TrEMBL record:
Naturally occurring in which organism (per UniProt): Marinobacter azerbaijanicus
Family: Belongs to the peptidase M48 family.
Key words, A-Z: Hydrolase, Membrane, Metal-binding, Metalloprotease, Protease, Transmembrane, Transmembrane helix, Zinc
Required cofactor(s): Zn(2+)
Protein name in UniProt: M48 family metallopeptidase
Domain annotation DUF7092: ranges: 10-86
Cofactor details (free text): Binds 1 zinc ion per subunit.
Region spans: Disordered: 317-356
Segments traversing the membrane: 103-129
Record's keyword annotation contains Lyase: no
Length: 356
């Protein structure tokens, strides 16, 4: 049976003087408001204010920081907790330790963390992306557009094989719609791309890319004008910059959660992130569709032209997917889906058909 007074705390551990890396077996005692460290030849008398008690983390070793860079290490967490209570220090640490060991609170924290993370990705990131995109100067959109076009031209886009006469005819039909929108001048360019196929894309700087396959798929120039109005809608609502910012914010959140900054230097991550910004959400597509409908109606163009080319596009892609079974073709299909700025859906087509 111990003969120590009830208020005395005795803790065994190791003492590091701070002058070198050697350690000594030591005993720390506290009684009557005085803390005494006995480490053989080294003996210290301290007040409770001289001792900084590290927080408790499970049952890992505990550290008491002493004057002169000295450290007392011990595995007697209960003894340290008693010392902290006696010296009226560490109440917050004790509460934290209790919370860490409360299963119910741990489960609640896990649920809250998952819900918060999900809300951040589903609602927080899109909202922040729109706010940031609308606040960015037009010069940023121009730089991003030029960089993206350069990347595409160096990878999947080739010079257009359309005749000069065909291009001039289309540009003549497009000309009334090529005005400045949301601070960006609208500029249409034509490119050939077997990899992407029939498609159109809107870059953040107002550059609209029409592929040769899409032009050849049209039976009436008004169908391409309808596609043009839709793509201009993306520029008007700054969807390109919003997509870019959203991709960056999502990537940053993942990096912050995983702590892996090396991914930023990996081209296999950066390039897809840039290209994915060209693929818009359903809400963005609805906004662009609304813009297109209004534009077509104001210019006396029947919205059925948009529905017609979209239906033809659906049929063309369905036939191609049914006939392509090789691994390389599957990869091109994935790329086309990634770059698609107007995913074909029956709901959207029906909206244009029913428009008066």
């Amino acid at each position: 049976m111990s003969t120590s007074p009830p208020s005395e705390v005795t803790i065994e551990g190791q003492f590091y003087s701070g002058r070198n890396s050697s350690r000594q077996s030591a005993v720390l005692r506290s009684a009557g408001g005085v803390i005494i460290l006995d480490a053989g030849e080294a003996r210290m008398q301290l007040s409770p204010g001289d001792v900084e008690i590290a927080p408790r983390i499970g049952n890992t070793p505990r550290y008491l920081h002493l004057p002169g860079d000295g450290v007392f290490e011990t595995e007697d967490n209960n003894g340290v907790d008693q010392l902290a209570r006696q010296s009226r220090h560490g109440r917050g640490n004790r509460l934290l330790h209790q919370l860490e060991n409360h299963l119910g609170l741990i489960l609640v924290a896990v649920v809250i963390t998952i819900a918060t993370t999900g809300a951040a990705f589903v609602w927080g990131v899109p909202w922040a992306a729109r706010a940031v995109a609308n606040a960015l100067p037009d010069s940023v959109a121009e730089q991003v557009g030029e960089s993206t076009l350069s990347t595409l031209d160096g990878t999947w886009l080739e010079p257009s094989r359309l005749s000069e006469q065909r291009q001039r005819a289309l540009m003549a039909d497009f000309q009334p719609f090529l005005t400045t929108v949301s601070g960006q001048s609208i500029n249409v360019i034509f490119r050939s791309s077997p990899a992407i196929g029939a498609n159109a894309m809107a870059l953040p700087d107002g550059t609209l890319i029409f592929t040769d396959d899409l032009v050849n798929l049209a039976r009436d120039n008004k169908e391409l004008t309808a596609i043009l109005a839709h793509e201009i809608g993306h520029v008007a609502h700054r969807h390109g910059m919003t997509g870019m910012v959203q991709s960056s914010l999502t990537f940053w959140l993942i990096v912050m959660m995983t702590g892996d900054l090396s991914a930023f230097s990996d081209a296999t991550v950066v390039v897809p992130a840039v290209l994915m910004s060209l693929s818009y959400s359903r809400d963005m597509e609805r906004e662009a569709d609304t813009y297109a409908l209004k534009t077509l109606e104001e210019n006396g163009i029947d919205p059925i032209h948009f529905a017609n080319i979209m239906e033809r596009l659906m049929t063309s892609r369905s036939n191609r997917e049914a006939s392509e079974t090789e691994e390389g073709s599957s990869r091109w299909d994935a790329l086309r889906d990634m770059l698609s700025s107007h995913p074909e859906t029956g709901e959207r087509i029906e909206r244009f058909k029913q428009s008066p």
